[in-house]
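Here is one such tokenized protein:
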Amino acid sequence: MRIPSTPSIAHQPLALVNGRLFDGETFSGAHGGVLILDGAILDLGPEIAPKNLPSHARVIDCGGDVIAPGLIDMRAFVGEPGAEHRETIATATAAAAAGGVTTILARPDTNPPVDEPAVVDFLLRRARDTGRVRLIPSAALTHGLRGEEIAEIGLLQQAGALAFSDGAESISNARVFRRVLSYARDFDALVIHYAEDRDLSAEGVMNEGEFASRLGLSGIPREAEAIMLDRDIRLVALTGARYHAALVTTTLSLEIIARAKAAGLPVTCAVSINHLTLNESDIGDYRTFLKLAPPLRHEDERRALVKALASGLIDIIVSDHNPQDVETKRLPFAEAENGAIGLETMLSAGLRLVNAGELSLQRLIGAMTLRPAEILGLPQGRLKIGAPADLIRFDPEEPYVVDPANLHSRCKNTPFDEARMEGRVKLTLVAGETAFEAE
């Protein structure tokens, strides 16, 4: 350890000691600590203990809690610009910090959409001025998210957009999407696409099947997702562009992703924490907070998604954070808006899978940290000397009950309302600075 010997507030080392180190690559519970200096990890391991630290170091005893990289969420709606009544960058990043999320990839389907460099610049400045965690803009693939005219991907990338998506919209025109992929390939840009055949999903409001019939609701077939995803993968093979499926929710989609990866195509995919931990039966008596897009699927599909995540076929977990206000959720199920908040509960919900023996803690953390960092080309998401000190401390066994009134998001449409959870985040650091600390 090489630590400046002269005490300085500006360069005071911070040490997290007496913890269990977990990441998605190297550490799976080793006892030790992390030493931080000037916003980066200076050293880590079992030798990071109070007896080995200089007197001027600030020391936090983690009491056996987990020390892990901060989570990276690749799908979240942050409200600004144009939907500040649903969420703002300030409230979204406060929720993220409380949930252990240190980097957010913001969706581009705002008002106006993120289809001009000026909007990218606005988001970066607002995040700098009001955000508690890192916020990275994703920009639109097409102007106005209309799926017709390709956006200026090169200029948007220069302005600071790290990925490109039309948010919750699918580009139905195959010719346009081929051109999008070809254009993105020339800039080595990541294309994130929400795969759904809108003609096939039509007026559906939940997963098609027996349960939808019993509730008297129109269904969305699994094929609506699979048909569009299969088309996308064929166009990726044609163009060679980097492609990320925003959300996969069915075994049909898993088969398509498996074939694409076996063929060596540059394809990755995500699953939302909701589809991993909930199923269509949880909708119960028309619970609109569980009306999502894509819809919650059958329990067999949920289990298949968990297995695919455990095997590495599914790359990452996202919150799919989508705040909706009371006026759009307190409606008959068919009329309510899609979406649920998730930044603050993503980790705790994921720990349900760990506690059930369906997933290892290391794999869960890797799917929320290292793998999204690799896909986005970020230096965060790992416990490694020289990496940014975006870190979290949490107790995976501490129980609590989700109280919407205590959540930091502006809207309270959580699918885990009054649910019993385990896994309380106690400390969130961004570049070594405290973004959240539990009281």
